[in-house]
Amino acid sequence: MKKFVLVLVSLLMVFAVSPLNAEKKMVLDGSTTVGPIAKAFAEYYMSLHSDVNITVSESGSGNGAKSLINNACDVANMSRFMKDKEVQAAAEKGIVPVAHVVALDGIAMIVHPSNPVNDITMAQIKDIYTGKIKNWKELGGPNTPIVMISRDTNSGTYETFEGLVMHKEKIVEGCEYVGSNGAVRGRVQSTPNAIGYVGLGFLDRTVKGLKVDKIFPTKKTVANGTYPIARPLFMFTNGYPKMGSDIYQFVTIHLSKKGQEIVERIGFVPVTEY
Amino acid sequence: MKRESTSSILISKGTSRLRRLVSFLIQGSLFLVTSLSTIAVIFIILFIARDAIPFFELRGLKEFFTSIRWYPSGNPPEFGSLAIIYGSMMVTFLSVVFAVPMAIFSAVSLSDILPFKVRQMVKPIIEIIAAIPSVAYGFFALVVFAPLLQRSGGHLLGILVWMVGLPVSFILVYMIGDVLSDRLFADPKLGHRLAIMAAGGMLCLFGLYSLYAKLSTITINSGTNALNVSIILAIMALPTIVSVSEDSLQAVGRELREGSYALGATRAETLTKVVIPAARSGIIAAVILGVMRAIGETMVVWMASGNASQIPKPWYNILEPIRTLTATIAGDMGEADHVTGSARYHVLFAMALFLLLISFISNLISEWIVVRSRKKWGI
């Protein structure tokens, strides 16, 4: 009798909990640069619609594309456009990737706050990362070797850097690779001789941003295109989402005033001057 | 009389056929369950090999093993893993160099020298070191140890020289003083011994000081380097080596020790000439276990080794960032998709196969040593 009651109670508990699971889910995956924007949008959206559960993972743009292609996520955050191979793979699986530009971003070159160097040219950045410039004294700094920090190759930030700065030339072998924007900032802020690159939203007081070709990375210079290392940030969906659906409302947040305020608050550049 | 199989010994002649059948079935199913783990390992090796072979078909053996250019996402992509293999080997070798002397000294002192109460307290603490998750070690290495090395690296190395050098030189001076005074003088007196030991002590102190002076001036450029990772890996491998060595030292038994003392040997002689040689096979097995732990560690090296695919210049420069096989597999797996890049996906399996082969070979060597020791010495 006791056993029967125990079993009955546990079954009832299981069934009592399950209605809570009958909520709508939205899965986002991808770039660590777009991640904070996606998380902020998710918080905002969930505060308006309490029956939707949104999860955001940050495993890199490449992973986000892969997840979308394999139908493992609803929205892929990417800090670069999909590569030809990814579009092809998506088409083979019947997925139509549609890009939504949610914000604009600049890639800031950062150094330790104690570094006297203030500006740098695109050619010099390329020479540093290809190993031609090895010492800070060649740039007007102290006589110390340069420690290069780069993002791992599955990162959209890396791909943008490779495309816009390196022009497809290969980075020299002594360069260190770390896994996220935060890790780059962490390494640079504790290493006096380091140079690295992060998304604009990660430029803060703990590191020093450099002027590139005499332009300092700010929201204005990125938006009007004068800052050379700038890029749009995307959210990809499978086809254009059905109007009024949760996904549709989510990927159009950036068009509203509130969305652009959120983007600006995080440190990126909103798509319009609202 | 013909030797019957186990089942027929345990079953009397009169049992029914059904009974025998049931017994056979149960034995068979127990064997199946036991061999499940072996089957799992075989399947793992098979699947990894199956996905690794296409890489060698695509790109051949030469590039993987001889080129140091690792650009899997480049245009055209290059998959030279020599620098990565070198990084793995270098880090494993260094961590063994740091860990093994410390571990063997700890095991010996825990089992033979220190009082039992100390052993009761210290052994659980060493076990706790093994229980700390590797990501916690990696976090510590990246956030605490790397900046520390950068700020005061040379100073730290100097302090390390003193910390390790003083006890070692003390022991060395005493031992060599004993041996030398026996050799040089027919009837060594206390005065002779003291003189030789003082001379040796001066020499050691001078050597340590000059080493300290030289190392203090070094500035470490990047704290995420081979030294950082090796020290952390040594700490992680320590409990494994200490536990297994200590167990094998205990397994030597009291009789051997008592016999040695009864023949008039001092404690040092007993330890170095009787106990440790007797436990030798177990100690070597422990070291190989530590090696396997170090070579397979992923989180620590991915976070704190710098991930720079290079062979440091010069080759023994341990203050440069390096990249290991495990970190490459973990870091690149996300981008290396079966759909979007073939050789890039398979090269990771080739690295995994290489790691498996190394573990396999280390295991075989360890087994061979134990078996040979047993045959030769009966232990």
List the defining traits of the structure above:
heterodimer, A: 274 residues, alpha/beta, two-stranded parallel sheet, 23% strand, elongated, B: 379 residues, mainly alpha, two-stranded antiparallel sheet, 13 helices
How is this structure best described in words?
The complex is a heterodimer of chains A (274) and B (379). Chain A has 274 residues and is of the alpha/beta class. Chain A contains ten helices and eleven strands. Chain A has helices at 2-21, 35-48, 61-69, 84-92, 122-130, 156-166, 181-190, 219-223, 246-251, 257-266; strands spanning 24-30, 52-58, 75-78, 97-111, 119-120, 147-151, 176-178, 194-199, 208-209, 211-212, 230-238. In chain A, strands 1, 2, 3, 4, 6, 7, 8, 9 and 11 form a nine-stranded mixed sheet that branches. In chain A, strands 5-10 form a two-stranded parallel ribbon. By secondary structure, chain B is mostly helical. Chain B has 13 helices and two strands, in the order ααββααααααααααα. Chain B has a two-stranded antiparallel sheet with strand order 1-2. In chain B, a hairpin with a 6-residue loop joins strand 1 (70-71) and strand 2 (78-79). The longest helix of chain B is centred in the middle third of the chain and has 51 residues, at 134-184. Classes of the chains: A alpha/beta (274), B mainly alpha (379).
Layout of SSEs?
The complex is a heterodimer of chains A (274) and B (379).
Chain A (H helix, E strand, L loop, with lengths): L1 H20 L2 E7 L4 H14 L3 E7 L2 H9 L5 E4 L5 H9 L4 E15 L7 E2 L1 H9 L16 E5 L4 H11 L9 E3 L2 H10 L3 E6 L8 E2 L1 E2 L6 H5 L6 E9 L7 H6 L5 H10 L8
Parallel strand pairs in A: 1-2, 1-3, 5-10, 6-7, 6-8
Antiparallel strand pairs in A: 3-11, 4-8, 4-9, 4-11
Chain B lengths: L5 H5 L6 H50 L3 E2 L6 E2 L2 H32 L2 H16 L2 H51 L5 H27 L9 H26 L2 H9 L4 H12 L1 H17 L2 H6 L20 H8 L9 H36 L2
Antiparallel strand pairs in B: 1-2
Helix pairs in contact in B: 2-13, 3-7, 3-10, 4-7, 5-6, 5-7, 7-10, 8-9, 10-13, 12-13
